[in-house]
Amino acid sequence: MATAPASSPVATPEWEARQQLAACYRVFDMLGWSEMIYNHITLKVPGEEGAFLINPFGLHFSEVTASSLVKIDIDGNVLGDSAYPVNRAGFVQHAVFHRHLPDAHCIMHTHTTAGMAVSALEGGLRPINFYACNFAGQIAYHDFEGVTVRSEEGERLVRNMGSKRIMFLRNHGMLVMGRTLPEAFVKHWALQRACEIQLATLSMGTPLEVAPEVVAVHQRDLHMAQVPGGPGAADFAAMVRLVDRRDRSWRD
């Protein structure tokens, strides 16, 4: 990632975070995970306690750039100048987790067709495919309470999340967290694939569930199939290269 332009008032660590997050929005759009001007990916600002970056409300994922991202604190105050508002539904949901979960460096919330479908399915995600086995026993669930704009729902969100870092918001969508943005990205990608394959499988008949002891071996050995550099690092870098071939405006 490039450093900030000489005229930019943004410190280099923040600019790098802005570019990484802007790239992620473009990657999500490329993969078909946009939802009009809605949904959110947030990223903590390095070295600034309680500050995180969020997409400007009104821009499509394909329009987000490093400089257009809005920096806010966990109380909803905009830090610095921005010509754009912030979606309250995004702030309320993400801020409560950024406040209470120190390891939730990056949070992704989407309304993909497959993710919303599985969130509305009794039993949720089942261990019936390779990717679903990655997540067996690691997914939290939260009942639908309407659009997430009331801060009092936050206590229940945090309680239901517990020690897990992936949640299905029932009848709503997916929520994925990571210690880094690439880690959250690769988890979201695999979860999305698991949902897509589950829907395809259920459309054909009765699925075969993987035995718990096999799931345990699968999860134990997953790290041996990772590229060095940290979870998701190589995967995300590859996606950014694809985005760059289409349009590099996200870097500005």
TrEMBL record:
According to the record, the signal peptide region is none
Name all Class II aldolase/adducin N-terminal domain ranges.
19-199
The family database entries (Pfam families) matched by this protein are listed as: Aldolase_II
Q: Which residues form a coiled coil?
A: none
Q: Which SUPFAM superfamilies match?
A: AraD/HMP-PK domain-like (SSF53639)
Q: From which domain of life does this come?
A: Bacteria
Question: What NCBIfam families does the record point to?
Answer: PRK07044.1
The entry sums up its family as follows: Belongs to the aldolase class II family.
Q: What is this protein called?
A: Class II aldolase/adducin family protein
Q: Which organism is it from?
A: Sphingomonas cynarae
